[in-house]
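Pipeline run #58 for the internal structure catalog. This entry was flagged by the ingest filter as a single-chain record with no existing model, so it goes straight to prediction. Upstream metadata was stripped on purpose; only the residue string is passed forward. Reviewer on rotation: M.T. Logging verbosity set to normal.
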Amino acid sequence: MEGCLVISTTGMVGVVIASREGHQGSPQLIITSDSLGSTRHRITAVDICYGKNGHFLVAVSSGSVSLPIQCFRVSVKQGDEKCVIMSQALPSFFLQSSPIKENQYRHVSQLKFVVREDADSLVVAANGDSGCLIEIWELREKPLPIHKLFQPKSHSSQTEPFKTVLWQHQSHFMSSSPVVCITTSKLSITTTMPPPCYVMVALADGSIHCLYRDSLKQVATASLNQAWRQEEAPSSKQQRLGLRISHLDMSWLGCVLVATDTQGQLYLYRLLPISEPGGPMTVPYACTLLEYCLVTGLDWWDLLVSLRPSMMDTVCERFTESFNRQLQQVQQFHYVQFLNIKTSLYRLTVNGQSKAADLTSLLMLHSVATAFKSLLRPSDLSSHDKGPAESLANVDKVLFHLEAKEFTVEPSTLQSLQQLIQWVADLALNLLARLPEQRQPGKSSGYELLRDYKALNTLRELLVIIRIWGLLRQSCLPVFVRSAENLDVLALLFRLISRLIQTLEADENLLDECCLLPSQVMIPQLNPPTKIVAVASPALFYQSLPIQLEFGVEPECLHFVPELSPVEGSMQTEQTVDSIRHIYLGKQPLVVKQCCRCGCKAQVQSMTRTAAIRAWDQRWARACRCGGHWRIHRFL
């Protein structure tokens, strides 16, 4: 269930659970508390991690090195309208006495489990007059020698040794400056025990140390003073002398470290891959992280800023091969997320913008096809097992085998979908008009929508649906600017795409007809280049790090406009296009919502309120088509 577990400074453990069984379906909060231990005492440092069987592991300290680090196993069970907390004391331990006596470390300031899901390792930091001491302790099962009278009896002649669980000191790290905060890896994607991870330590002198878990070996170090290389006024330099790190945190994938100081400034550091400490990011490790994001739904932004442009194509190919090896139902479930990840990879390079545009069109085509086919209803109960959308697979003989009743949709709904219908036709026009240049020898490798015959077949099915819907309401049909009034553009598009799918390779006659297409009908611009102002863009790789940014001010150095070669003879426009509803918003709309990742814009609110278009808007209400977050952008 959804909720949280809290530990108070007075030694209490509290639980807040959001139950969905409240009055009229509204969530109801269930709150309870209990003493963490048999006796209560003041707690100054605490950390919580997940156990293996649904319980929590809690490590607490009272702040003094003369008192033990106590550990508890806490489990929560829900009863009738209440929940019960059960806390069990586990073995405790004291810090190593020899360095404490020599250096007078008296105050335990930080406790941190090494991995959030690894309850067997704990990092303890103590401060003193001469710096800090950081130790790693592991929970081990060890045999304990006892007298033979107390040994358990067994049927065999050999007696089994008595085993107990206790904390064992592993390694320590000492510094001449007090520790301010510690953070560790949030997860481990390997099955090795103990899991490899980093321990990040921020000291009072403004330095950050990256320590490897094994033996606390120092992998890298950085300082706040090194983060400023530009010449500044003396007053600002004197002001920086008082800077102090206030908090550290790592991203979920462990590729980025974020630090904040006492003046509200944010510092972002790229971390070395945990698979090979001290080495560069490798293609297999990057693909493994992408697969983990694909399955779990985690954001992969921190990995994007850690990749190199030279490895993008290789990562895309390896990631695609791994995805295609999965079961068909697994691919179908993760398909949208897969397209989002692959699009963001191609968008990081200057040469990959056309591939990213094709993948964006593929994602939109998949979404439009899903929305259109969900509106189709079988005409009688006998065809419930096989709906009209499935019968479109036999498109070659579609006009002979389809019942028009099965495609009946309310006229008002069809009219509200006109802009999506128009986009489908515009996509077909752009693909066919671009076919001659796409089939030229020497084209770069990577994804091309014209070579995806599954997507082309989906596009052909949609053209059939649109033609049948046009019989119900002619005003929902796409609008074309034609050179001849008697030219049936929909029939021409269907015929050319069918020939492309059937021949697998474009013949000379097909190429000639596609070359004549711009002279027969006006080709609208499908993917107008959108200015991107983001860190994860090709502009990042041309900057000398570090980059200094200011909140609320878009940096000129990160402005990037993708160069997309338009179709020859296509209609160019400077208007802002709604990337979700595919309508024109004017040259400079006052208020739009803009994606923080790809830079595309959309209306804040939709004007059409039919059920079909509301469902379409809800599909993109939480995030953009690329998976990025929306932000309200106002033009002053």
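catalog note: The chain has 16 helices and 25 strands.
catalog note: The longest helix spans residues 353-374.
status: ready for reviewer M.T.
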